[in-house]
Amino acid sequence: MEEIDRRIVTLLARDGRMSFTDLARETGLSVSAVHQRVRRLEKRGVVRGYAAIIDHDAVGLPMTAFVSIKPIDPAAPDDAPDRLAHLTAIEACHSVAGDESYILKVRVASPVALEDLLQQIRASANVSTRTTVVLSTPYEHRAPELADESGAGHERTG
Length: 158
What we know:
Blueprint: H1 3-14, H2 20-27, H3 31-43, E1 63-71, H4 80-84, E2 90-95, E3 102-108, H5 111-125, E4 127-133
Antiparallel strand pairs: 1-3, 1-4, 2-3
């Protein structure tokens, strides 16, 4: 990926609503050149979409937890993500190496809601669970530091 494309991706990762005018100012390109580059990055799948960052406390989901799951029957098909897709309290599902098969990031309204969700997870996917409740989140949604072609990273600015 070219240096200018890495710069555009970094800027968009920090602020997905940044205007083409602001991107042009930050990169030294014309607005039309930035627009073309962003569209090309989207078409290549480098930029897969744009999302609002929600204040989960404000929408009634103040409790975050990580739920590690592993199948009760190790010979069972590895289809837990499909079996759990209907549970919208699961924000993310990561396949992991180690004792567990997956780690789920969940957001719920209360300890009771977490307990209910854990029962649904166990029943839906026939798994055992291990849960870690988040006490606070000092940072999240950080923009990546993109390396150049040689693999060297760049200093963060701003």
